[in-house]
Design a protein that fits this description.
With 218 residues, this protein is an all-alpha fold. The protein is built from nine helices and two strands; from the N terminus they run H-E-E-H-H-H-H-H-H-H-H. The protein has one domain. Strand 1 and strand 2 form a beta hairpin.
Length: 218
């Protein structure tokens, strides 16, 4: 709680700045190491923290906590609908098992589950949709999901979950191979997503340079 409050405290002259001097009495990287709200384009990779800036610390914490729970329930249901060929009963059971599993409630892997499953659901919809407005919306969601997955910054979860998501991705591509036809518009959208994601990744590497240099001194 002190971490999140330090970003919005009245004593903080630069609210929601990337570096905070209030928390430890010295410059502290608030995004990569701690992850509260930061007024930066990087917040696209941690969208639930936007609530702190919009609603204040108290309501922002509520939005962050319950927003993830509700999002996980909805996304896990859609993901289960995808892999069960739209069996609603099984999907509802899968939603409850995923949302209230030990990995979620005890080990707090909510973010990795949300963004990994959302990306796969959107990739499937991207391949099946013929409307380019829908494809662009899916691409935006995939972009945010991909960035958010990377910004979770916990390889112990990201790597094993990543293998599972990769297997499902291969299955989705195989499932849609006869329906989906590659065209130049789709290629342009995919390239745009990759370039934007790479640009945001380069930005955080630049922003954490100061923090990295300090760590390398010890």
């Amino acid at each position: 709680m002190p971490i999140f409050l330090s970003q919005s405290a009245e004593e903080n002259e630069n609210k929601y700045a990337y570096y905070n001097d209030l928390l430890r009495g010295t410059s502290t990287d608030m995004f990569s190491a701690i992850s509260p709200a930061v007024a930066d384009i990087l917040v696209l990779g941690k969208p639930f923290t936007i609530g702190y800036m919009l609603f204040g610390s108290e309501r922002g914490l509520t939005f962050d906590w319950y927003g993830k729970l509700v999002a996980l329930m909805l996304i896990s249901f859609e993901f289960c609908m995808l892999i069960t060929n739209k069996n609603k009963f099984v999907s509802a059971c899968g939603m409850l098992l995923i949302t209230f599993s030990a990995a979620t409630q005890w080990w707090n892997s909510t973010g990795i589950l949300i963004w990994g499953m959302l990306a796969l659901v959107l990739i499937d919809k991207f391949m099946l949709s013929e409307k380019y407005k829908t494809k662009i919306l899916c691409a935006c969601g995939i972009l945010i999901s991909g960035i958010s997955y990377v910004f979770t910054m916990y390889p112990a979860w990201q790597i094993p979950y990543g293998y599972i998501y990769l297997a499902v991705l291969i299955w989705i591509i195989w499932k849609n191979r006869k329906v989906y036809k590659v065209n130049w518009k789709d290629v342009l959208i995919i390239i745009s997503v990759i370039l934007i994601a790479a640009g945001i990744r380069c930005k955080i590497l630049y922003d954490v340079k100061k923090c990295t240099e300090c760590c390398n001194e010890y």
